[in-house]
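Progress narrative, work stream C.
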Amino acid sequence: MVQELDKQYIIDLAYKHFMSKSKLNKILLAYDIYMSDNSENTFNKFSDIKKDSLILLMSFILNMKIKKDFNILIDSETGLFGITILNNKNCKQILTLIFKENSEIIFSYVTGKPEIVKISGTAFFDNPLESFNELKKIIKLTINT
């Protein structure tokens, strides 16, 4: 059953950290889609939404200063927040990061030119807020944000 993560909690957390309205709206859109899809799903209810994952996602967005187009997602099986960064308008290069509540980040990079290449892995951080510079190295290998 999906934990009723209050929308106001998300808004308050975003304003507390001075997140822009456009970035907050992307998070709220992912939340609305997740909740709507779950209410329409009669067989298997989605996993609880993980607050710690949301906090890590917000910290990432605020610290990385992403310049490329991106979308926010919530995984229905795990309740974890993620971000998909698109390198160009044709979506030929996509980097997806999933933020686990234990400060683990799962990443997957896919490119479709000239052949399909996929690079994926897991990054573990003792203190992710201080370690985002290390994560930048992974991102620079894939998509220059």
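Work stream C, second folded protein:
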Amino acid sequence: MVRPYYNIDTTKEQNNAGGQKEDNKHVKKHFRIFTFHIYFYRAASVHGVGDLRKEITTMTNAENKEYTIRDIEALTESQAQAMAEEIATIKEHQIYFVDFGGYFGYSALVFADGHHIRYADDYELHHNGKTKNELREFYLNSLSNKLFTANEMETVTSYEDEQAKRYYIQNYYGMRRDHISMFFVGSDEERERIRNKTNFMIFSPVFLAYYDKCDADFVKSGEELLHRLKKAANQAKTPEYWANAFLHEMFNHEYGINWQADFDVCSCFGDCSSVRDYENIEELFNACNFSDVQRSAYMIARRKYSEQSAALY
């Protein structure tokens, strides 16, 4: 079977995007809550937790089997390639479009450096009602916005852009090598076995996982990517950046109906644990060591939140 092949390069578009429309920023609060729970579940069931994943040896036709999430996440790149109806390359990541039928349906599987970046996979079950063509376009657009190259860490166009790139480094990039997650679910016996194994491995505070010593350079590369991103973010922190950052977190924390609204938002940018009066915004600003620019931007964000939330609710 001849499979269509796409090579999608959206680096320029991503760098020029500068974030999404202001009116849609409130949607991100749901995304963050959802992705946290998904990340915790997946991180808790990653490498080194016993025989949790089935060994898949022969898979040439996805329609012949009812797949579980463990089956799909255990697929190697060669297996995904053999099953794929179409193949794309997005920012140095290989994307295999596979129709699993049943529960998961038409899906996008992500690989890089020969490893399954399964946290980035997406499935039809999350997008019911879309045709296969619509799903393909959705996957291409979605993955173009959440996958990045190393060079893209050199620039930050907005707070949302910084957060997306940070998420990529900390959740996706580390899956390019075999590792043992610091999160664990299993028996005490299995936990002890894993603990003994990690005594001879390298821990990455960026990826929150243990790696073989032969991958020391890769572990270091994660730290370097995060450093480059932080440097780029510092250069991008204009008054507009701060206003949009505060506005983003206001929607993320349901500012208008949250009794500790300012405390929750300010806590995203500093340590407010010493503040006893959650309604004293000056104390919160002082605890966070906000500059005059940040304080002014926060008040601008407040006004924008009032305007936008009034239109929404």
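The radius of gyration is 22 Å. No further action is required on this item.
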